[in-house]
Amino acid sequence: MTSLTEVVDGAEVVVCCGSGGVGKTTTAAVIGLEAARRGRRAVVVTIDPARRLADALGLPEGLTGEPRRVAVEELATADGTDGAGELWAMMLDTPAMFERVVRANAGDDEQADRIVQNRFYRNMATALSGTQEYMASEALHELHDDERFDLVVVDTPPSRNALDFLEAPGVLTRFLDHKAFKLLMMPTRTGFKVLSTASQPILKAIGRVVGSDVLADAVAFFQAFAGMESGFRDRADAVTKLLGDDATRFVLVASPLRETVAEAGWFADQLVSKDFEVAATVVNRMHPRFGDGSVADAARRAATAAERGDEDLAAMWQNLADLRRVALAEREQLEPLVERVGADTMIEVPLLPSDVHDLEGLDLLGEHLFEPAPA
Ligand SMILES: Nc1ncnc2c1ncn2[C@@H]1O[C@H](COP(=O)(O)OP(=O)(O)OP(=O)(O)O)[C@@H](O)[C@H]1O
Ligand SMILES: [Mg+2]
Q1: pLDDT along the chain (375 residues), means of 10
Q2: Residue 282 and residue 299 in one domain
Q3: How remote is the CA of residue 9 from the centroid of ligand 2, in Å?
Q4: Is residue 368 within 6 Å of ligand 1 at its C-beta?
Q5: Ligand 1 atom 16 nearest Cα
Q6: Nearest atom (ligand 1) to Cα of 155
Q7: 114 shares a domain with 35
Q8: In the chain, where does DSSP find H-type helix?
Q9: Claim to verify: residue 249 and residue 299 sit in the same structural domain
Q10: Is any atom of ligand 1 closer than 6 Å to the C-beta of 287?
Q11: Which domain holds residue 317?
């Protein structure tokens, strides 16, 4: 593979994943920008609460949980009727997203208020692991359905559980089907009071462990939640379907260091085990190859120049020998990954002289990741 053009052109969702610091956020920003340059209306959403996406896009004022338009000059007009391309960006705000979902799905304001004021809900919205992943999948669903966008680029956080959000919808569905959940919901179906639910033997046992206040809050939460399960279930099913769709593409980002190569292999295995395919592997921060000559040849010429007393020329040949050695070592480090994902999915991106924190820098990387945009 020589570029991401084809991968992104046919996509409605692109998920960038990989280990910490390899360039996921930067790659997601490049994909959004280049897609916009090709007439797409792209939104880049970062699940990572860090400011890196805003920084990569050159937005000192930062991003929020609402998509905001990024000003890009000279965007191409799509050949279809879609009009000019657009670039948008947002940062997942888990508690805000949760409240939005509750308000959008509650039967009325009173039900929504009862839920968002509940202590169990508030703990869950801010602290429970799994909520962020689940809200990431809700955000993906919302953005994919949003008429303003035709491409959603997802930037995943720097953790091994970054891919948990792929499973979050399924986890929710299983939870809604679980006995304990049905039991918690029972009083609202049969007219019992909260207290009688909490006196069920199994819940009494749970109450002894987590505290009866916590349990009462939880029971009250699930009862307030009554009637919303099917909406949650439908969206969870829709996201599961969307993630498995042909128009959803996974881009694995890696770099040519031993540990990150091993991590990239681990991510590739994770994706495959979840039945997803790696559409492209971006190997970021590569040292370029200078010519076809060998390290030994450059070193020999350095020695010859030194013998002749030409120190400058000797230093230059020595530099070339060193750079070739680095480039060679990087390609050797990458071999396990090439074997794992296949050479035809790999795209090399060079190490730039500096960090990327504006559209100009993203365009520089874009030249390596995409074919030139149509004029
Ligand atoms: N090809 C490159 N050349 C030079 N600098 C780069 C390149 N790619 C990324 N960077 C820089 O490397 C740093 C890390 O990149 P980025 O934030 O995209 O990585 P990440 O994988 O999203 O990290 P995290 O796992 O922390 O979210 C940034 O400062 C970015 O500007
Ligand atoms: Mg990042």
Answers
A1: 88 94 95 94 91 94 94 61 79 92 90 88 75 88 96 87 75 73 59 54 67 74 79 88 94 93 92 91 92 92 96 96 94 93 92 93 94 73
A2: no
A3: 23
A4: no
A5: 23
A6: 22
A7: yes
A8: 5-9, 24-37, 52-56, 94-105, 109-116, 119-126, 131-145, 168-177, 179-190, 194-198, 201-210, 212-224, 229-244, 258-273, 295-307, 311-341, 359-369
A9: no
A10: no
A11: 295-334
